[in-house]
Structures are given as C-alpha cells and as structure tokens.
Amino acid sequence: MLAIRVIDSITELQPADAGCIALSGSHGGLSSARYALAVRPLLSVFNDAGVGLDAAGIAGLELLQLHDLAACAVSHTSARIGQAASTLTHGVVSHANAAAQALGISPQEPLQPQINKLSRRQP
Fold first, then answer.
1. Which residues, at least 6 apart from 106, have a Cβ–Cβ distance to it below 8 Å?
2. How far is CA 115 from the centre of its chain?
C-alpha cells in the first residue's frame, strides 16, 4: 500500500514523503505547489480555495503537471480550507491535472473512495 500523509499544510511534507499520497488543506496555488515539487509525492491534493482571480487557487496543478506530478483540488464548498481531514472525508474533486487523471482521479467525484483505491496500489 502507498503511504498517505494527511497534513493541514503542504509545508509539512518532508523528503521522506516522496512517492506518498499527500492530502493537504492548503490552497492549490503556485506557492503550495512548490513545496510539493520539492518533495515529489505521487499525488498532491489541495483545496481549490474558490479558484480565485486568474485561477490562482489551482495554478499549482499546472505547475506540477509540467513536472509530471499528479495533483488535484477539492472544491472549497465541499471541504474546509486548511483542514486535511475535511479534505479527505468530505472533499469532492473539482480539478485534476492530466497526471492525476491518469492515476484514476476523476473530477466531480468524492475524493475518499478514489484515494482508497489508489492507496491499494503497490509503490
């Protein structure tokens, strides 16, 4: 099974978390994505934070895609921003980059069953 890190802030990732499923409560902006990029989880999960002006709340998904890293965001109306447990238990995926979709992450679907299925894969 793949390791799952449930962290309120993506800044809590450590080098040993490389290859994990990182479930955060962080927004999916560029600053958050840079933390994920440094560690390279298999999948990074963020909150879309309402998407925002110029899609700033999910801009990190594209940045991670440029580095072949999977990332998705749950809707801010489905999970509390800054609370990873809420992301996991209540989150509905609103956006997923191509790498995340290749792992089986589907927008408009609840996150938790998708994570459960993905975590059963062998690293």
1. 93, 96, 114
2. 10
The pLDDT, as a whole number, for residue 100 is: 98
Q: Is 50 left (phi over 0), alpha (psi -120 to 50) or beta?
A: left
Residue 41 has pLDDT above 70, yes or no: yes
Task: Give the HSE-up count for residue 117: Cα atoms under 13 Å, Cβ half-sphere.
Answer: 9
Q: How far apart are CA 79 and CA 118, in angstroms?
A: 20
What the block records as the tokens of 20 is 């994990």
Q: In what order do the strands lie in the sheet with 70-74?
A: 4-7, 21-27, 43-47, 70-74, 93-96
70: which strand partners? 43
- Residue 17 structure tokens: 């978390």
pTM of the shown model:
0.96
Architecture of the domain defined by 4-119: 2-Layer Sandwich (3.30)
Could you read off the pLDDT of 74-87 as tens digits, one per residue? 999 999 999 999 99
The DSSP bridge partners found for residue 21 are 4, 43
